[in-house]
């Protein structure tokens, strides 16, 4: 964004590199116009500039917090143009002073602000504003736009939060149809795995994976991608854990779509005797504490003081309140040793990953006595999340796995795991292609409409679109 005055004052050019105003050239024939007209021209130009700043601010919203666009205007006008000695320099210098002066003034109550730029222009024609009044109106209008931008940013975050925690129709359909199939089709009810393979479920010479989810499509992608990438798929055992309502559908899926030669077991949380209220306090907390339910499912904007919050903090607050944090399925990883007492080493996979390489070398990593191997993901924002989960701590419920394993985690080389595909769009496609495991952590899951289009194919590649259930439910069409 640049403002050029040609030395002879014959033209003023605004150019912008980001395409909002490509090249606006305003010719001013210096000899034929009065100083006063010129002054107005510059005021209008100055007024256009902040709109460009605001548009830019929309894109990089953090800019709004760092300096209000009004201050930015002064700052940007200042250094570039001060120090000139010709008329234009003095002119801008004067205007800069006025801007600075009102920069610290409060907008008087009752100051009538034009609704739009064209209204401002027509009011300028009718009333003779002095420079100071004009600058005040300018400031008022800009502050109003900034407020509106902030508010709409918060609503956008809120809507995205709801979009991220909802279940898409196609996935819901898949679950219902497969559940129906479970009751009507004996093949969908067949024992998983078949009886002769049962001993392998607790045989430590196999590679055991655990996946805990209520999303059948996501489970299918994780299992398919892992098995297809594995060098010895016949040695893979998948333990898929799901909740009671999804059990029948999940079982149907893997009964009807065996991923041989790998072995798949499907279990519902209701089938583990160990998962009782005494052992798992989170179960009780979720059922009995309204406070907890509201904290994770409530209207997050109502209780928040938005004037004290930046969009970024609000976003991470929302994230920390994701309903997944009170889902038992999300807490299961803490109890793996109790749930699978016979297994020495397991790899726990989240349901939003895609495995792209053979994972057997993970079993060779010496964990050095630590209970859990994980790629270190703890950063500033996670720390924040931990703090915001204090409510859970206080109620004596279980903290997220991240805390439970704090200090007991052995870091695994990050090349194993590429994180953040659900957060940021600027992911390097080449790195995505090369990572052993890609993780769509964040809101933009590949099965949601808000998923990032260019990252989705790495996931949909493992969705079998010729499957009748997938086709009939119009998944991601
Ligand atoms: C585990 O599986 C291996 C190879 O499939 C087999 O040789 C071994 O006997 C099994 N062990 C047990 C305890 O069943
Ligand atoms: C929100 O915070 C601002 C600034 O600290 C304060 O003036 C205002 O009273 C607060 N509003 C509510 C509803 O708490
Ligand atoms: C993400 O980036 C890609 C290419 O870099 C672009 O085509 C797409 O529109 C972006 N999507 C969003 C939601 O920003
Ligand atoms: C996809 O589904 C069809 C129909 O159910 C099945 O015949 C085919 O083997 C599946 N393909 C893969 C790669 O699983």
TrEMBL record:
This is Hexosyltransferase. One of its GO terms (molecular function) is polygalacturonate 4-alpha-galacturonosyltransferase activity. SUPFAM superfamilies: Nucleotide-diphospho-sugar transferases. Belongs to the glycosyltransferase 8 family. GO terms for cellular component: Golgi membrane. Its main location: Golgi. Pathway: Glycan metabolism; pectin biosynthesis. InterPro entries: GAUT, Glyco_trans_8, Nucleotide-diphossugar_trans. Signal peptide: none annotated. It is found in: Golgi apparatus membrane. Gene3D superfamilies: Spore Coat Polysaccharide Biosynthesis Protein SpsA, Chain A. The chain crosses the membrane at residues 37-61. It comes from the Eukaryota. It is a single-pass type II membrane protein. Its EC number is 2.4.1.-. One of its GO terms (biological process) is pectin biosynthetic process.
